Amino acid sequence: MAESIKFYLDEHVPRAVAEGLRRRGAETLRTQEAGMLGAKDEQHLALALSEGRVFVTQDADFLRLHAAGQPHAGIVYVPHGTPIGTMIRGLMLIQLVLNAEDMRNRVEFL
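Structure tokens predicted for DUF5615 domain-containing protein (110 residues):
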């Protein structure tokens, strides 16, 4: 059976998103919990890759890293201003229809 998606949330993604995902059974790690506040973008992607976590961000710099060929376990880009409920529903839908291997080096947009 394919491995389910685990999430790693960028520091700017609201805490309520992590809480909502966890209430729905999604394995979720926040930047703050990982001790990665202030880390470089490449370090975030490296940690997410090493732990097999899809990185959820509102920072377009990660799209540039993807375009430059930086390996990653997956990136979900969420535009600023996206409501928390929309973020949670979108991420849960991604987890429902894709697996960890599907997301490797892939970007999804909410």
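The helical segments are 15-23, 41-51, 61-67, 84-97, 100-103.
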